[in-house]
Task: structure prediction
Amino acid sequence: MTVREALQRREHETLRPDAAFSDRSRGRLTPNAQGEDDVRTCFQRDTDRIVHSKAFRRLMHKTQVFLQPEGDHYRTRMTHTLEVARIGRTIARGLRLNEDLAEAIAMGHDLGHTPFGHAGEAALTEALGHPFCHNQQSLRVVDQLERNGEGLNLTYETRMGILGHTGDRIPETLEGQIIRKSDQIAYVNHDIDDAIRAGILTDGDIPRSIARILGETHGERINTLVCDVIRASGESGGIFMSAAVEKAHRDLRAFMFERVYRNPVAKSEESKAKDMLQKLFSYYVAHPDALPADFQPQLSFEGMERTICDYIAGMTDKYAVDKFTELFVPLGWRVRG
Result:
């Protein structure tokens, strides 16, 4: 018996009947010619493929809320992803669901995010003339863009969990639904922490009606929400919060929109970032030959706008600024010897 087979057997011994079992996966877009790994389950292999991808490494340099903050402790898309993965694994463990699938979905869920957070999404939405949705782009990254156009060839369950972590589509697996909920838990609470670090909020600013239910501190709020999901979901066949905690969490999110997400201090640079990305988009429409060599073949079968969108969406914040500077900011004169 291989290690993978032993792990698959353990899943059947420890997980509940409606969990996603790795030996019952609906498979990959393209079956592996050599079959599955002898050591890793298919979902563990998905996580490894994501973590070793270029798109995952770029998350380290992509904005979460505060654009290019001065300080080492503000969240990035990568730290957000890791927090979602930890919350997701904890909930999955508490509900006897597949932690490995939850982790794979979490690691891939934000691979399609633009530079400069939601300002980048807004810029590409206007440039394209239709909504740019980062969950759809994340699926596109793992299916088509990584590995020079070959994609990561992930399992159906991981792919649909990535697609359904936000938006109208609800994941078919409970593990996918866990990451949908974990993403909401993570971003609202770590954005509070970052806003306090930035001097925009204090712990005392959280409305008392919310703090009495969720807790006074970052750790208390996370613990309350995670434990509530585990208790409320139980063996129900869905992933839920209790009514009181759900309302408090929804009220906390509304509070964050009012005080942080629309705060002119936190968002003061977003219009510049949006304008910069739109100018980059227009430049490449006029000069498609200026796209990198590895994007040139895509022009012939994907079209210009789709190709440019993929290129810009994949940029880190710093790369976008550097590229804009290269194309639009005059260099100081110097004598060349």
Residues 3-172 form a domain with the Hypothetical protein af1432 fold (CATH 1.10.3210.10). The mean pLDDT is 93. The two ends are 69 Å apart (CA to CA). Residues 194 and 317 are 18 Å apart (CA to CA).
